[in-house]
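comment on this one:
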Amino acid sequence: MARKETAADAANAGRLKQIALTYQMTRKADKKIGLVLAAVGIGTLGVFLAIGFLIGHPVYLGIFGLLIALLATAIVFGRRAERAAFGQMEGQPGAAAAVLDNIGRGWTTTPAVAMNRSQDVVHRAVGKAGIVLVAEGNPNRVKSLLAAEKKKMNRIVADVPVHDLIVGNGEGQVELKKLRTTMLKLPRVLTGPQVTATNDRLRALGDLMSNMPLPKGPMPKGMKLPKGGPRGR
């Protein structure tokens, strides 16, 4: 029994610490977060108390209002913390991959399936909507990366729909904060077993490429690449 209480206390302490860290992070980007949360909490409680005095039940409405005030404050805090987090991540390399990692159950993400020397990158997510290729970087450069990766996906899994998205604030692009919502709105066309089969095929391809024997060190002079092998651009 004592062990269970100790574990519960440790879990609560961990949650409080996480909330405190989240608040500190949010406050760096949102200076008014404290005033906003106080206004939401006090305002909500005040409304319920006023109603309670009007109908003659201030205690009951006060308790109920306190619970609603805490809930409203938590919701507002969560939204503003999320907005602050996206604001700090926006424009940073790998920001889209971080969003994909937290998209939710039913999706399998593979970061950086394609990249160029300028660090423009394409990530891949597989779910019931099919395959979604998400690019971040210079819009003009990532288009060629997307086209090449999409062509490869269509060749490997021709029966699975492939969507492509470019993260950014320009025309035809998806804002980072709307990436998760945009993906979740895609029509679901695959069943669970089909998603698993698609992941298995893509995973097998990755294992095949990673296990392919390649010569170490510089290539000997006069050595020719086999037909169909990779060529320099």
Notes: The chain has two domains: 8-89, 95-211. The longest strand covers residues 108-115. Strands lie at 108-115, 121-127, 130-136, 162-167.
